[in-house]
Write a structure and sequence with these properties.
This protein is an alpha/beta fold. It has seven helices and five strands. The relative contact order is 0.17.
Amino acid sequence: MTDATASATAKGRVLVVGATGFIGQFVTEASLNSGHPTYILVRPSSATANPSKTKIIKTFQAKGAIVLHGVINENELMEKLLKEHEIETVISAVGGEKILDQLSLIHAINAVGTIKVKCSFWSLNFIHLHIFDP
């Protein structure tokens, strides 16, 4: 095994949630370019209902991304996907009306217990400041 092969094998599996959104596209591209096995979570309806998202998904697949179908607020499904695919890093670029769905994702991550890195571009401070403050 060459040093390059060993380096690529040693890179952890990354799941990007919100990969077809504005920020998510950049995050997914960076993960793929850095050689991480990259998984993207796609809502079942996104793959067929929106032609521009379908194009983004196909572009990522052509670059090596692995598509997982589901929604982040389905706790049991998320736990299953995280375990089954041995995901080590979860990056959420989810925003807008889906922002609170990240709470279910966080519960699934904690339940699995093997995720080394958790990152959200819509931090809990944002949730606190804009949703919970009187």
